[in-house]
Write a structure and sequence with these properties.
The complex is a heterodimer of chains A (205) and B (429). Chain A has 6 helices and 9 strands; from the N terminus they run αββαβββαββββααα. Chain A has 205 residues and is α+β, with helices and mostly antiparallel strands. In chain B, helix 3 (144-153) packs parallel to helix 4 (171-185) and helix 8 packs across helix 10 (406-421). The chains are: A alpha+beta (205), B alpha+beta (429). At the A-B interface, helix 3 and strand 8 of A face strand 5 of B.
Chain lengths: 205, 429
């Protein structure tokens, strides 16, 4: 299906700078730009059986599962910022890490190309769609989603960051709740929005 | 003037990307800043703009194909720029590597955007640009194979006339150049690499050989290799194997010693978890794996591959034998997928069927250990204080001594040998 999730409007708006933190209304599977369902990335039978909608996003990376127990963070920045793509990941992820720290969550780091982890388990994955004048970043943060849902729909990805070290979803992915943090989604949304607002308000360097 | 735009590093430091969509066609006029192509790397999709105005004269690669950073992406004919003007244009653009060629297939000046080529609106590649400003070295357009071959043969690629697209130097051009050089000198010097090409068969490195080389060096650089050798008498195992071999043959399954060894190793790993672990130095942690995926080093015509038997602890000896047969056949037919190589936790290399008693196997890093299986032979053994003829299997175990101490290595080896000497325990445990 064509990508029409809430951050679609941010991606295609005329604004050079924007952000949103939102909670999916139900479970979705979102494929990366080059993912094909037949790429062995999705257990199609289970997705069909459960009636899960599958979308393809414009950005790179592997397939992800979105659910109401997760937050999606979408940020758009102008390319005028003189940064390499990996620096955009670092800039935005640091803003998210800052918000998590302020919410009392510790041992949070950027890992791999663009993940955020607690310890050596992943809690956030992100990707970027870089257009001529804007960089569009989106990420999914697992607040309390069961990792079983990821194992149910997604196969082991064809590419993985070094720190994954072959671990399956259950061993590699975690949630804030699983790590002992029961922060309310609304509080997290607020903390993230404040941090991102400060980020997008920065004058271009 | 022809301008070659190479695929720039779009900022992740990755070596390759996939062509998602061409946004231009051959023959199309473009302005600087017009979008040429959408490329994808591991986490990023980026629309790449044209650094120059002109007419697209060639697109290198099809949608869905992967290309390496630095490889030619697009050729742009810049109109109205030729001769001395072109040279000035090239020199003016000091952020681009440039070369003037007179070779066949190239008319005028060929300009090459190196890895330093930038995305508009960013300063990507600035450090590289500075580096290029500091050098007068010029880069010729050549295929990676030709470049590697020229290097191996000691041929200066800048002296080779290219006959490929846009004057690109090909493998044949390098060989032709080397042959012409030898003819023109009329002598064969023992000291010149080009002359050596007569005495040495030169082949470019295959991707598989490069991968093997990289992995071996990575292991030797990162792990502290330590080896232990021992022999185990396996007459009883041989008796059991012979007993069931025919029955399994009827089912199309070849019951090898290796199937028993995989089972024995798996059980031993459960008792000695350090051998089924890896060290995460980045986070100062040890990862003790509770799954047992045994890699088997398989010798193929193209080189060594290590497919994995997943969850070997949950398989019977019969199922392991079938799995070994399946992955070995796939390996030799080149039909293994990436999934077949993933997530190994311990490796067994069985060279004995070809020859050799002992070896010092290189650990399949970041795993903690590898077991080498030597040639089984009949030998004089002492049983119950009596000299007897026994079937002896030599074992060579290499461990990462950072992870496993000597005592545990010996205990693991004893456990494996115990299972193999008394195979009934493989069923009882």
């Amino acid at each position: 299906m064509s990508y029409n999730l809430p951050d679609y409007a941010i991606l295609h708006s005329d604004k050079q700078t924007d952000y949103a933190v939102w909670q999916p209304d139900k479970t979705y599977i979102v494929l990366g730009r080059s993912n094909r369902i037949t790429d062995d990335s999705v257990y199609m039978e289970k997705a069909t059986e459960d009636g899960v909608e599958i979308y393809k996003r414009p950005s790179g990376g592997e397939a992800v599962v979105l659910s109401p127990d997760m937050l999606v963070i979408s940020v758009k920045l102008p390319v005028e910022n003189p940064l390499k793509t990996h620096q955009y990941f670092r800039l935005i992820n640091n803003s998210i890490i800052d918000a998590l720290h302020k919410s009392g969550i510790s041992d949070v780091h950027q890992k791999g190309i663009s993940d955020i982890s607690i310890g050596f388990k992943k809690i956030l994955g992100s990707s970027i769609y870089r257009k001529e004048k804007t960089v569009f970043y989106h990420a999914v943060l697992n607040i309390s989603g069961s990792v079983a849902i990821i194992s149910r729909y997604l196969k082991h990805p064809s590419k993985e960051p070094d720190y994954r070290k072959g671990r399956d979803h259950a061993e590699f992915v975690t949630s804030l709740r699983q790590e002992g943090y029961n922060t309310a989604p609304e509080d997290l949304k607020k903390a993230l929005a404040e941090s991102l607002k400060a980020l997008v308000s920065l004058p271009p360097k | 003037m022809k301008y070659i735009f190479n695929f720039p590093d779009i900022g992740e430091g990755l070596e390759e990307g996939t062509i998602v969509e061409w946004l231009v066609k051959k023959g199309q006029k473009v302005e600087a800043g017009d979008l040429l192509v959408t490329m994808e790397t591991d986490k990023v999709v980026a629309e790449i703009p044209s650094p120059k105005s002109g007419t697209i004269s060639a697109l290198f690669g099809k949608e869905g194909e992967s290309i390496r950073v630095g490889d030619a992406l697009v050729e742009i004919e810049i109109e109205g720029v030729a001769g001395e003007e072109a040279v000035k244009e090239v020199e003016k653009g000091s952020d681009l590597e440039a070369v003037k060629e007179e070779g066949a297939g190239v008319v005028g000046t060929l300009e090459i955007a190196g890895n330093s080529a930038v995305l508009s609106g960013s300063t990507e590649g600035i450090s590289e640009i500075e580096a290029i400003k500091d050098t007068t070295k010029k880069k010729i357009l050549a295929t990676p194979v030709a470049r590697a071959m020229a290097k191996d043969m000691g041929v200066d690629i800048n002296q080779v006339q290219g006959t490929g697209p846009a004057g690109r130097v090909t493998k044949d051009d390098v060989l032709q150049h080397a042959e012409n050089s030898t003819k023109s000198t009329g002598t064969v010097s023992q000291n010149t690499p080009a002359a050596e090409s007569k005495l040495v068969e030169v082949e470019p490195l295959s991707q598989m050989r490069k991968t093997i080389a990289k992995n071996m060096i990575r292991s030797k650089h990162n792990a502290a290799h330590m080896s232990l050798f021992d022999d185990v008498e396996i007459s009883e195992l041989d008796r059991v194997r012979k007993q069931y071999k025919e029955r399994y043959t009827g089912e199309g399954i070849k019951l090898t010693y290796l199937a028993f060894i995989v089972k024995a190793v798996t059980y031993a790993l459960k008792k000695h978890k350090a051998l089924n672990s890896e060290m995460d130095t980045e986070n100062d942690k040890m990862l003790y794996k509770k799954y047992y995926n045994i890699g088997l080093a398989v010798d193929t015509e193209k080189g060594l591959v290590v497919p994995v038997i997943r969850n070997a602890d949950k398989l019977s000896i019969r199922e392991i034998a079938l799995e070994i047969q399946t992955i070995s056949e796939k390996a030799r037919e080149g039909k293994l997928s990436m999934d077949n190589f993933k997530d190994g936790t311990f490796t067994i290399t069985s060279y004995g069927s070809i020859g050799g008693k002992y070896a010092v196997p290189v650990i399949n890093y970041p795993q903690a250990a590898i077991l080498g299986i030597g040639r089984i032979s009949k030998q004089a053994v002492v049983k119950n204080d009596q000299l007897d003829i026994g079937l002896v299997l030599p074992l060579s175990l290499t461990v990462d001594h950072r992870i496993v101490d000597g005592g545990e290595v010996s205990r693991f080896m004893n456990t494996v040998m115990g299972y193999l000497a008394d195979p009934v325990t493989l069923i009882m445990d």
